[in-house]
Every structure is written in C-alpha cells, then in structure tokens.
Amino acid sequence: MASDVDTFIYFLQKKFDRIRSLEIKTDPDEDPESAHLFKRVLYVGIIDVLSKTVFPKKENHGRTVSFIREFCGWQHSEKVSLPHLARLLKKSPEPEFSGLRQLVGSEMGKWKQGISMGLDKDIDEGAIKPLWPKEKEYEKPLRNVSLESIKHVHLFYAYRNSLIHEMRKPGYGIDFDPSDQDPYYHSMSHVGHGGIKSETWELVYPIGFIERLCKKALNEVREYYIREQLNPYDTFAFGSYWIEELNR
C-alpha cells in the first residue's frame, strides 16, 4: 500500500517539478503573461487528478470544490468576493436587497484605486446572511448564480473551467509578479463608446498561488492516503480500452 502511494505521488511530483521549471518562449506580439497560461492549465490538471482519487463519486464541480476545501489549505476560500457580490446586486434591483447594497457599498468604499487589495478585504458569509432575503425566490437572484456561487472556492472552479475549456483566464486581471502566492484585486479603467469611462476591480489568482495550492495538495493527499490506508490507483481503470467500464 505505502509503496503504491509513494509511486503515485512521485509520479505527480515529477510532473509538478517539470511544470515549475518550464520556460515557454512567446512571440513578440504576444502578451508575455500568456506563457504562464500553459503552466496554469497543467497545475490545474494535477489538482484534477488528485481530486478524482479522493472524491471519485462526485461530479467535476463538487469534486473540485470539496478537494480545495479539504486539501489545499486556502485560508480565504470561503470568503465572498465583494466585486462579484456588488455586480450581482446591481443586476438584482429588488428592494429586498437594499440593506445588503448599503453594506457592500460601504465596504467597497474603503478600497483604494491604485492599491492591490487582498482577499482578506472580502466579506464573510456571516455578515451577509442576516441581510439576504429569506424568500425562496431570492436563493438565486440570477439564473444559476447564488451567494454560494461567488465564494472563492466556487470561483476557482469557474477559473479552472475557463483554463481547460477556453484556454484563457476569466476577467482582465494582470499577474504583475509571478512569485506572488496570494490572490488579490487591482483596479482597472475601461473606456467605452463615446469616451465613457468605467472602473472595475479585477480578481487575480497569480501563477505562484496556483503552484502553492498544487504543492500543498500533493503533501496533504499523501498523508491522507497513508492515514486512511487508501490506494490512489484503486480509482483508476487501467487496460487496453478507452472506455473505463470496459477495463473493469
């Protein structure tokens, strides 16, 4: 059992080390940050592999969220993103949200443009719940968007999907320093038609943060396998056939 665990983790650790050492050249006309896109996709791939070994019966969303919560040591994963909440409330004009709009406006009024804001400046669910309408119709003010949806642990899943299925990061955030290991927001000005200007707060999950999550997960999952006497290979079907059921 222990030898299987060590073999499995060694395999993924070697992949992790290879990803971290990658130096990807970019074309002169290409955004230099786009080189990190490939690393992000690969790191997320390792997290996907690990999550399957622990939550094999869950679908992708539930598996990813549960894994991040249990094995990645992300302090602010349950925080509610203030800019996402502000946007949700802007698209939900009902008077029932008035008290919450005032709270969010007060909190975001403390944010200073030109200064990056860490996720510690986001808001806890406990501060929101008393002001959230109790009626069932407001559980999801927008189709498929609830309060739970804009917690960071769920936003990470949206981030993962954008990387894997669209080969891009969501939003317009800039990863200023690849060595940053903590997510942050930065302000951005947008000029629209007729010179109309708007300001947004862009969320950034730096490449250093994704690397940190992946590294933490490898260490935590190994200890979990050994403690629970689990063999990670048991969740995979090996064989000649590309359809799993045909190899079982």
Features:
three-stranded antiparallel sheet, Four Helix Bundle (Hemerythrin (Met), subunit A), 248 residues, globular, mainly alpha
Describe the structure.
With 248 residues, the protein is mainly alpha-helical. It has a domain at 1-78 and 153-169 and 209-248: Four Helix Bundle (Hemerythrin (Met), subunit A), CATH 1.20.120. 46% of the residues lie in helices and 7% in strands. The protein has eight helices and three strands, in the order H-H-H-H-H-E-H-H-E-E-H. The chain has helices at residues 2-21, 35-54, 60-71, 82-90, 98-108, 125-128, 152-166, 207-228; strands at 117-118, 184-191, 197-204. The mean pLDDT is 93.
Radius of gyration: 21 Å
The CATH topology of the domain at 1-78 and 153-169 and 209-248 = Four Helix Bundle (Hemerythrin (Met), subunit A)
Q: What is the CATH-assigned architecture of the domain at 1-78 and 153-169 and 209-248?
A: Up-down Bundle
Spans of at least 5 consecutive residues whose pLDDT stays below 50 are none
Instruction: Label the structural class.
Output: mainly alpha
The backbone outline, from C-alpha atoms, is globular
**CATH class group of the domain at 1-78 and 153-169 and 209-248:** Mainly Alpha
